Amino acid sequence: MRVDFGRIALRFLSIASVAGIAGLLLAGSANAGEQIFDELRFGVSASVQSGHSREDGVFPEITALFDPFGYDTAVGWQQQLLHPRVHLGTSIGTSGEATQFFTGFTWTVDFNEKLFAEAGFGGVIHTGDLEGDDDGPELGCRVLFHEYLGAGYRFNAHWNVMAQIAHSSHANLCDGPNDGMTRAGLQVGYKF
Fold it and tell me: What residues pair up with 86 in beta bridges, in sequence order?
């Protein structure tokens, strides 16, 4: 029996990041004016690929968004595009499929007080098969590009829901297969 220590380490890293974010939330900040996160999102996604590249199961997700560039003070879509937020998250594989740990930039544009659209671009480290012996995507290398598009609705100043489709692949920049992973799902967000 072969033990894949890389897969174990990445799964541990994903679980540890979820636990760390939850711990920081429970601990709270010392000062009411201080906040670590701009927004936290929790959701679930599923593979939208077909054939041998399809991933089984569902993928619980958690994403933290940070605002180091002043998105909250941006007025109008032009300023919003110039002030991206930073995202950090995980998509946890179930049914033996790939777990992802991703980070990058998020651009959010408001259509009005309720409706918004979002795009993200960055990178991902995953636990998936590089060159497959079984079903599921053959990914070629451990580090991939990660991009997503979403459309959302704000219930109030704090709560929102977003439908999202995300794709990860290496854009043929490393040797090996490049089936990629494409998942779609829903996320519920809480903006601080």
Answer: 66, 105
Element (DSSP H or E) covering residue 136: none
Nearest to 187 by CA among 147, 154, 143: 154
- Which strand (E) or helix (H) includes residue 148? strand 143-154
Which two structure tokens, joined as six digits, stand for 42?
């929790």
Domains, the chain, ordered by start: 5-191 (2.40.160.20)
Helix (H) or strand (E) holding 10: helix 5-27
Residue 27 has pLDDT above 70, yes or no: no
- CB contact at 8 A, 46 and 186: no
- Cα dihedral 69/72/73/77 (nearest 10): 90
Main-chain dihedrals φ then ψ at residue 186, nearest 5 degrees: -120, 145
pLDDT, tens only, 45-96: 999 999 888 999 999 999 999 999 999 999 999 999 999 999 999 999 998 8
| Concatenated DSSP letters of 73-97 | G--HHHHHHHS-EEEEEEE---TT-
Phi, psi of 6 (to 5 degrees): -60, -45
Give the integer Cα–Cα distance in Å for 82 and 26: 32
pTM for this model (two decimals): 0.81
Q: Are 131 and 151 in contact (CB under 8 A)?
A: no
Give 116-158 pLDDT, tens digit per residue.
999 999 999 999 988 876 678 989 899 999 999 999 999 999 9
